[in-house]
Amino acid sequence: MKPINVSAHFRQPPDPVWDFIFGDRLRQAVAASRLLEIEGYELRPDGTPRYTMVMKAGPLRIRSVSDYFVYDRPRKTVNRIIGGLFDGGTAYVDLRPEGVGTLVEMRVELMPPNLRKRLALALSRPLLVPTLTAELGRWASAADRSGQ
């Protein structure tokens, strides 16, 4: 499947943007979110996190595990997506200095393991890009308001 690509410009340099998105067990990003909840956050001895991400879609709760294998502060993360609708996918987040701020780019490569999930993703894809774009924009606005 074609990757999902979204981005947003934050007005802060990469370090405070990283802290807003990934710091304190993702609490600031989750507080700014309309979509996400985090359960069972674990920081492993190698410094990579693993947690259950719960995506809220109306009355539905779609759970998947985010299992990081690249966690390079303040530049990039890469995590496997285990379970849920996005099972078998990989999420990449890159933070790049841009002007006086930071460009945050998110790419999600989806590789659904079965026909049922491929069909569900194909049907939901037209909603995913604008939804994730709006979500990242909410994070940027909240980071501006928080001064991070």
Please give the structural blueprint.
Blueprint: E1 4-10, H1 14-32, E2 36-43, E3 49-57, E4 60-72, E5 76-82, E6 90-98, E7 101-109, H2 115-146
Antiparallel strand pairs: 1-7, 2-3, 3-4, 4-5, 5-6, 6-7
Helix pairs in contact: 1-2
What this model shows, in words?
By secondary structure, the protein is an alpha+beta fold. 34% of the residues lie in helices and 42% in strands. The protein has two helices and seven strands. It has helices at 14-32, 115-146; strands at residues 4-10, 36-43, 49-57, 60-72, 76-82, 90-98, 101-109. Strands 1-7-6-5-4-3-2 form a seven-stranded antiparallel β-sheet, covered by helices on one side. Helix 1 crosses helix 2. The longest helix is centred in the C-terminal third of the chain and has 32 residues, at 115-146. The radius of gyration is 15 Å and the shape is globular.
Q: Name the beta content range.
A: 35-45%
Number of strands: 7
Q: In DSSP terms, counting alpha (H) and pi (I) runs of 4 or more, how many helices?
A: 2
Indicate the percent of residues in helices.
Answer: 25-40%
Strand arrangement, major sheet:
1-7-6-5-4-3-2
Cα gyration radius (Å): 15 Å
Mean pLDDT: 93
Class by alpha and beta content: alpha+beta
- Backbone shape: globular
Terminal Cα span: 35 Å
* Low-pLDDT ranges: none
> What are the secondary-structure elements, in order, as H or E?
EHEEEEEEH
Sheet of most strands: 7 strands, antiparallel
Summary of the model, kept short:
This protein is an alpha+beta fold. It has helices at 14-32, 115-146; strands at 4-10, 36-43, 49-57, 60-72, 76-82, 90-98, 101-109.
